[in-house]
Write a structure and sequence with these properties.
Elements (H helix, E strand, L loop, with lengths): L1 E11 L2 H11 L3 E6 L2 E5 L9 E5 L4 E9 L4 H11 L4 E4 L10 E5 L5 E5 L8 E2 L2 E2 L16 E9 L2 H11 L3 E8 L2 E8 L7 E5 L4 E8 L4 H12 L6 E7 L6 E6 L5 E6 L11 E4 H8 L24 H4 L5
Parallel strand pairs: 1-4, 5-8, 11-14, 12-19, 15-18
Antiparallel strand pairs: 1-5, 2-3, 3-4, 6-7, 7-8, 9-10, 11-15, 12-13, 13-14, 16-17, 17-18
The structure holds fe (ii) ion (2 copies).
The site of one fe (ii) ion has 6 residues, from strand 11 and strand 15.
Length: 321
Amino acid sequence: MILRLAHIEVRVRDLGAARAFYADALGFVVAESDPGHLYLRGSEDFETWSLTLTEAVEPGLGHLALRVADPDELDRLERVHRDLGLSVRRVPDGIEPGQGPALRVRGPDGSPLEFVHELEQVTVTGESGVRLPMRRSHLTGGLPPRRIDHVNLRVPDLAGSLDYWQGTLGFSMSEGVERDGAIFAAWLRRKAGTHDVALLGGPEPALHHFAFSLTESADVLRAADLLADAGYARSIEWGPGRHGVTNALFLYVRDPDGNRLELYVGDYVRDLDASPVIWDFPEFERCGRLWWGQPPPPDFQQTTGVNPAWVGADAVLSGVE
Ligand SMILES: [Fe+2]
Ligand SMILES: [Fe+2]
């Protein structure tokens, strides 16, 4: 059983510039670093990191990791993916700091996925007793963002992708948009919130954005102030506004390499067996994409980076069987 989205690897050209943006301006907690990577988390992530920035030639998605409930699940998922004729690779523990053995696959839509059970946790008990991750606010600046929330992907064959994400991986659709009798966009989850992954059709597979949740609505404005005060006013791409789908308040920002980060707060919690909320396309256009706020800029439909075959996938899956 898959539990939720656990972490995402995003590729950046300049790790120093990315660190200034994510850690110094926005307040992501720096867990670890090495010459090619920076490992970050939100203030309420219980795992030591949830966002890896990897230095690379092109920006975009490296991989996204889904946590499974049981280590044996890796064997089952390996069989399932082999049966589907998909590329699989087992990777040993420690390939990322604090990460146990994992299974990496290229999904049928090309998405570079990792399944993992064991992930290092933030230490919450010590000599002075219990200290939850979020009770280190005296050590952080910026917001900081609260925790990893979701990724939004463009996929060339949405119906085929839904078969995989819902049928094979067991994701539940919280909301969908129907156009001409077919699903045009879908918000899928394994956690109780509105989504871990959103899928929209697109000419080629790509990362559209990844999102971290904030603690409260006012943090959306605080994020805009922090970014503008630190010289990143032009990095604010769209928002603040409220989505009709998911009900969330949002601010979309671009990191120095153009990777799109959504800062997000206010979606709801609902049981996984609930029927999805379906919007018809005109209704989605009228108030689903945007309940209130200014319309998105024309560039908003651009995906992050030039990512024709998941730029990161080759590195993630090198040595695939
Ligand atoms: Fe990973
Ligand atoms: Fe989003």
